[in-house]
Amino acid sequence: VEYINTLFPTEQALEEAQIAIQQLFGKIKDIKDKAEKSEQMVKEITRDIKQLDHAKRHLTTSITTLNHLHMLAGGVDSLEAMTRKRQYGEVANLLQGVVNVLEHFHKYMGIPQIRQLSERVKAAQSELGTQILADFEEAFPSQGSKRPGGPSNVLRDACLVANVLDPRIKQEIIKKFIRQHLSEYLVLFQENQDVAWLDKIDRRYAWIKRQLLDYEEKYGRMFPDEWCMTERIAVEFCHITKVELAKVMRTRAKEIEVKLLLFAIQRTTNFEGLLSKRFTGCTLTDIPGKKRPESPLDPTNPFLDESGEDVGAEKDEEFAKVVCACPRKPKAPDNPFHGIISKCFEPHLYVYIESQDRNLGELIDRFVADFRAQGPPKAGTEEGGAVLPSCADLFVYYKKCMVQCSQLSTGEPMIALTTIFQKFLREYAWKILSGNLPKSNSNSGGLTITSLLKEKEVCEAAKFTVDELCLICSILSTAEYCLATTQQLEEKLKEKVDKVLVERINLTGEMDTFSTVISNSIQLLVQDLDAACDPALNAMSKMPWQNVEHVGDQSPYVTSIIMHIKQNVPIIRDNLASTRKYFTQFCIKFTNSFVPKFINHLFRCKPISMVGAEQLLLDTHSLKTVLLDLPSIGSQVLRKAPASYTKIVVKGMTRAEMILKVVMAPHEPPVVFVDNYIKLLADGNPETFQKVLDMKGLKRSEQSSMLELFRQRLPTPPSGADGGTSLSFSAPTPEQESSRIRKLEKLIKKRL
């Protein structure tokens, strides 16, 4: 029972607990009531403090406003009095203070007294503006009396007042002063005056230099520094000069000569450069209606004297000593004054362009005359196969013209100059390069059939002489140089011209012209060597091959062909040493021309005995060996021929060997012969099979049955294929040849 009583409280214990809880709630309520009383007390205290704060703030504002009002009222009275007495020095400081104080009363403009004070301030400002303009008009009259000896302190203080007034007052003062200061210039250099012409343009710039020096001495301290009056006078002079020069050049356009024009541009650009050294260009955007020039100054000036000094350097040095009123900044790489005057010459640059047209025409004529007088490059000399000197002279002159014109203008004149460049690039290609290529029928040479049949190795002259071969190689090298340099010229022109005109610069046509000269030169070299081999091939086709009794050394016609190759190819290779890729093209084109011709002459050798076919096979192998060594024949440095070239030779000459092997094979039984032909030649053309039968000397009746059997034994071509497909040797397509040339270039670069 005691244990259970300890676990479960009795009724007395519960009553005691309830009493304790009630006492606790009572204490909590007392604490809450006291807290609410304390909070109410704090609110009452803070409310009083806030009221005191508001009262203090309003009182302070009232006192400040009353002080401002007192200052404003007194200031307005003083301002009106000082204005009447022209006490501009005191007015300048007072007016700025009054304006600042008046800003505090913007929200009180509804009060009549405040509004009245504001109107009085505006009236005083208006009166000051009118009064200051009148004072300047009196001191610097537009017409009539001469200007006074020096500025007055009143005007200097008036400028300080103008800084506080409406900006239009300041602009009006500047405008009138500059107009009055340059009025003498407009009279001295009127359009009808002799000194207004371009040949005396130096006098214009000398006059303004004297005027600026005179201004700094007399009026430099009258205007505030931030007005930059010296620069403003110079800029206005530039604008007036630009208009006046344009007017006089338009009137006397027929009298403008290129030397006179370049002289005027030189002096003008020098003066613009001088301005960039003296001033920052900070006023170029301040003058209404005037825009800052956008064209930067090129770092090089083609019109400077060789000494690099401008005319009148002594005056410039004296002018440089004058401290400019404008704040100076570090020298910028661009000239903000470039074109501020010289732009007026741009419409007349056609005189310069026409002059360059005439000069280039005379230059081309001189190149032609020199070439005729000196003759073509001689073999064995330094000039042999080298780039013609006239080519370098032409592009040096082009560069000079391009730089010069770009400094005159980067707009339409550059496009006109580009057109002139295109014209004379084509003329150079036609008159100097293509016009001096030897004619293909210049000489006749080769071996006679009789001498070949008698097996006499007679060394005859090639169709072109050695000097002519050297000339062709020299023209080819020159055309390659022109092609590469023309591409660089196009890139430089695009850099110099305005961006909006870049698309109009295109020298692709001229580059194609030089590519055509290169192609024609290579073709002439190929035709020359090819034609030198023709007599030997004709002799081969006319030899009685059915009467050959034994196989000996290579035939005389092979010796003749090899002799011509050894004569021509080393000369061509040595003269094209600087353009190896074109020598490789020559080798490829010659092989593509010679091998099909050799096979055609091979078909003419009929009939052929077994021994004759063996002799022809030996000759074919000898020619194949020579052709494989063609790129390095006669050279002390042995180089492996490019793989693409070797592939062409092997493919073509292997076909010739297969033809001879078929001729050597017995035609009995016919089925075996036909199958062997199809297997070796892989040629489904009946005409080719007919030629092989003619070489074997078969009768027409035998050939008919053979042809019928050939048509029956031909394999069925796949669907969509041409039944008459022929795998006979053919020249590669231009795309294949271009791909091979690129591979050759890579191989040559790797070996070098």
Automatic annotation (TrEMBL):
Keywords: Coiled coil, Endosome, Golgi apparatus, Membrane, Protein transport, Transport. Residues 614-698 form the Vps53 C-terminal domain. Residues 14-55 form a coiled coil. InterPro entries: Vps53, Vps53_C, Vps53_C_sf, Vps53_N. One of its GO terms (biological process) is protein transport. Residues 290-309, 713-740 are annotated as: Disordered. Residues 725-736 have a biased composition (Polar residues). It is found in: Endosome membrane; Golgi apparatus, trans-Golgi network membrane; Recycling endosome. It is a peripheral membrane protein. One of its GO terms (cellular component) is endosome membrane. Gene3D superfamilies: Vacuolar protein sorting-associated protein 53, C-terminus. Residues 10-371 form the Vps53 N-terminal domain. It comes from the Eukaryota. PANTHER family: VACUOLAR PROTEIN SORTING-ASSOCIATED PROTEIN 53 HOMOLOG (PTHR12820:SF0), VACUOLAR SORTING PROTEIN 53 (PTHR12820). Belongs to the VPS53 family. This is Vacuolar protein sorting-associated protein 53 homolog. It comes from Nothobranchius furzeri (Turquoise killifish). The lineage of its organism: Eukaryota, Metazoa, Chordata, Craniata, Vertebrata. The gene is VPS53.
